[in-house]
Amino acid sequence: MEKTYYDPADLKKFGKIVEWSEELGKSFFEYYGKVFEEGSLSAREKSLIALAVSHAVQCPYCIDAYTGDGLKRGITKEEMMEAVHVTAAIKSGAALVHGVQMMNKYKKLSM
Amino acid sequence: MLKSLQAKDSPLSKTEKQLEILSNGIFNDGSLPTFADQIKKSNQYPLKPKKIEILQINVGYMCNQVCAHCHVDAGPDRKEIMTVETMQQILEVLKTTEVNTLDLTGGAPEMNPNFRWFVEEASKIGVKDFIVRSNLTIIRANEKYYDLPDFFKKHNVHVVSSMPHWTKGKTDVQRGDGVFDKSIKALQELNAVGYGISGSDLKLDLVYNPSGAFLPSDQFSMEKDFKKALKEDYNIDFNNLFAITNLPISRFLDYLIASDNYEDYMYTLVEAYNPAAVANVMCTNTVSVSWNGWLYDCDFNQMLGLKVASKSKHISDFNEEELSNRNIIISQHCYGCTAGAGSSCQGVVA
């Protein structure tokens, strides 16, 4: 067994998932490619969204991939950090907004 | 300011050491295919040239900047400078061949004391495209260079300049402190005499090199971003952006090894290999001439000391037919020119 769950080298092997389920794997990569094409949103904007979501789902492969992709596209470190703060704000906000539920329950159970 | 590898007496200042690194390790243990193996798959080995259209002249390795990625290892300490005699030999070749593009590079070509004489004489011959690769800051480096925009205009020189990003931070980290501000000022001065302006014949192109261990993105979307940012922030216009991949040699190789990025970068280049780019790599229509007149397949091979595999090895002995029949010398650095949409001194090739 590997001693760690995540190995940076595994990112390069992502394409191999097709080998164990060709139809679904190919469909996924085709869909993935289309999602990131220029559309109503630019490829640059999508790259920043992907970076933010990578942090939300805490996927180290995705963080490596979309930091590299952002560098290629000329996205600055300030833009990347702002995107990560959007993630942090939403994630912390999501935790904190449940405080209302806690307050509701507290009030209901208290005299 | 950084020092050149030569000034530091770094092992990588020796071309043999660079070639040894590029041929061993992951390319010798079967992890990655060599460039020769790769092009054999598409029957493009040996790589052969087409008609010679471009002479790229390196008039000297002296430069006022010491850029972190420089494949020339140029800098103020470099003393290799082309003489008038070699320049005269180049002029003779231009008069007697069908070469239609003259591409002057360096170092900072303007620092060669005979640069202006050479430009004047070469422009009389009437090549179709006369390129000077200017680092921009030289225009603001010293009073004696302040009139360069007018000089370029007078001789209808096509100016190609390096600009790794539209922000100060990313530019200065690659090219040195203060480079961004001086470059912006120089671009505004070039615009002021008509360079890069819509409707003008005076061409001003920018070269983008990634400032790190990653490949350039799509050239045309980068151009759009550069144009928008430079126009909005500094009212600067230019014609085209050339996205150029950093090749793993010299100072960039040194950076890759020191930052533990070498293997990952080579994997990235090999994964991005595009067989369609091979047919149009710049060594197929360009001959590179060094400061002392030797001929090379490209500026990168010049920096690796790999002279052309031809009887015609020197500008004094330039023979179009001999050169057209040569095999181009390749190594693993060539993956840099075939990654993605390909890369050349004129940008993408595929």
Automatic annotation (TrEMBL), chain A:
Cleavable signal peptide: none
Superkingdom, taxonomy of origin: Bacteria
A Pfam family this chain is assigned to: CMD
Carboxymuconolactone decarboxylase-like domain residues: 23-102
InterPro entries registered for this protein in UniProt: AhpD-like (IPR029032), AhpD_core (IPR004675), AlkhydPrxdase/COmuclacdeCOase (IPR026445), CMD-like (IPR003779)
Stored NCBIfam families: ahpD_dom, perox_w_seleSAM
Family annotation (PANTHER family): ALKYL HYDROPEROXIDE REDUCTASE AHPD, BLR3452 PROTEIN
The protein's name: 4-carboxymuconolactone decarboxylase
Origin species: Flavobacterium jejuense
Automatic annotation (TrEMBL), chain B:
Pfam families per the UniProt record, alphabetical: DUF3641 (PF12345), Radical_SAM (PF04055)
InterPro entries assigned to the protein according to its UniProt record, in alphabetical order: Aldolase_TIM, ArsS-like_C, rSAM, rSAM_ArsS-like, rSAM_sf
Stretches assigned to the Radical SAM core domain: 47-280
Cofactor (UniProt): [4Fe-4S] cluster
Keywords: Iron, Iron-sulfur, Metal-binding, S-adenosyl-L-methionine
Database matches in PANTHER family: FE-S OXIDOREDUCTASE (PTHR43728:SF1), SLR0304 PROTEIN (PTHR43728)
Identification of the protein by name: Radical SAM/Cys-rich domain protein
Organism listed in the record: Flavobacterium jejuense
Lineage of the organism: Bacteria, Pseudomonadati, Bacteroidota, Flavobacteriia, Flavobacteriales
